[in-house]
């Protein structure tokens, strides 16, 4: 099994841009797709990025995803931050017999 | 509209059993794999188990292997999780999630509201 490591928390002001990283400790980050989920308190998880950089219908283009093989990591970037972007964000990937989530990052919009 | 409604959670003593259910509607249930994922206080989201569209392929997290069993009834549009020998560390909100494909190891695109399981003496 591999581990996905995320920063515990990030914060930024409304209107600014924030990037959340997700680093894979073994195996290539490019070997399996990475997804990102948003989880607000009291709500269900919502997928905001799938297959590394694809946005589901209804997710604003302020949300974008990427992978970087040199750092073996994935990133979620949110631009034009809004108060309702405040939530926990989880990266997720898998191998042939496991689904792995990162530890989650709490985004605070100051 | 896709709906996934979990039920069966509650307060249970360590070592006892519980069976969770997930009622699905708004999509062709038999065409998609399904997962159980839990939100553990202080630890975040954890994958529990997944099952393919026809129930043939199943996967489990190491932490629940041998104690939990996932199953589905396509005629009833329902997903289940039988949880035996429950431990305090199984305390969590349990979500049912639909996979974007018939196979187990693909991403989850719709989630239920969750049901809370508390294991305590």
Characterize the structure shown.
The complex is a heterodimer of chains A (110) and B (121). With 110 residues, chain A is mainly β. Helices cover 0% and strands 45% of the residues of chain A. Chain A contains no helices and ten strands. Chain A has strands at 4-5, 9-12, 18-24, 35-39, 46-49, 63-68, 73-78, 87-94, 99-101, 105-109. In chain A, a hairpin with a 6-residue loop joins strand 4 (35-39) and strand 5 (46-49). Chain A starts with a strand and ends with a strand. The mean pLDDT of chain A is 96. With 121 residues, chain B is mainly beta. Helix content of chain B is 0%, strand content 52%. In chain B, the strands form two sheets. In chain B, strands 2, 4, 5, 6, 9, 10 and 11 form a seven-stranded mixed beta sheet that branches. Chain B is globular, with a radius of gyration of 13 Å. The model of chain B has no long low-confidence stretch (mean pLDDT 96). The A-B interface holds A 1, 33, 35, 37, 39, 43-47, 50-51, 56, 88, 90, 92, 94-104 and B 35, 37, 39, 43-47, 50, 59, 61-62, 95, 97, 100, 105-109, 111-114.
Strand-pairing-aware structural class of chain A: mainly beta
Basic shape of chain B = globular
Which protein chains make the most extensive interface, counting residues with beta carbons within 8 Å of the other chain's beta carbons? A-B, 27 and 24 residues
Q: What structural class is derived from the secondary structure elements of chain B?
A: mainly beta
User: How much is the radius of gyration of chain B in Å?
Assistant: 13 Å
Secondary-structure element series of chain A:
EEEEEEEEEE
Helix percent band of chain A: under 10%
> Please, what is the average pLDDT of chain B?
96
Number of helices of chain B: 0
According to DSSP, the number of beta strands of chain A is 10
Mean pLDDT of chain A: 96
Task: Please state roughly what percent of the residues of chain B sit in beta strands, choosing from under 5%, 5-15%, 15-25%, 25-35%, 35-45% or over 45%.
Answer: over 45%
Using the alpha-carbon principal axes, give the shape of chain A: globular
What proportion of the residues of chain B is helical, as a percent range?
Answer: under 10%
C-alpha Rg of chain A, in Å?
A: 13 Å
Low-confidence runs of chain B: none
């Amino acid at each position: 099994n591999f581990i996905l490591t995320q920063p515990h928390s990030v914060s930024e002001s409304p209107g600014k841009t924030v990037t959340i990283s997700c680093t894979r400790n073994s195996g290539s980050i490019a070997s399996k797709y990475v997804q990102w989920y948003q989880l607000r308190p009291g709500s269900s998880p919502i997928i905001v990025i799938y297959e590394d950089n694809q946005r589901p219908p209804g997710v604003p283009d302020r949300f974008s995803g990427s992978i970087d093989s040199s750092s073996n990591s994935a990133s979620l970037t949110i631009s034009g931050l809004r108060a309702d972007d405040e939530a926990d964000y989880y990266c997720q990937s898998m191998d042939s017999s496991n689904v792995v989530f990162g530890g989650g990052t709490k985004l605070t919009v100051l | 509209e896709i709906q996934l409604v979990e039920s069966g959670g509650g307060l249970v003593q360590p070592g006892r059993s519980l069976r969770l259910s997930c009622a699905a509607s708004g999509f062709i249930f038999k065409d998609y794999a399904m997962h159980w994922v839990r939100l553990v206080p202080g630890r975040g989201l954890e994958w529990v188990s997944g099952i393919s569209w026809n129930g043939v392929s199943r996967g489990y997290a190491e932490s629940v292997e041998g104690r939990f069993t996932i199953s589905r009834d396509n005629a009833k549009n329902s997903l289940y999780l039988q949880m035996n020998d429950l431990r305090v560390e199984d305390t969590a909100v349990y979500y049912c999630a639909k996979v974007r494909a018939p196979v187990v190891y693909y991403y989850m695109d719709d989630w239920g509201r969750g049901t809370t399981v508390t294991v305590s003496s």
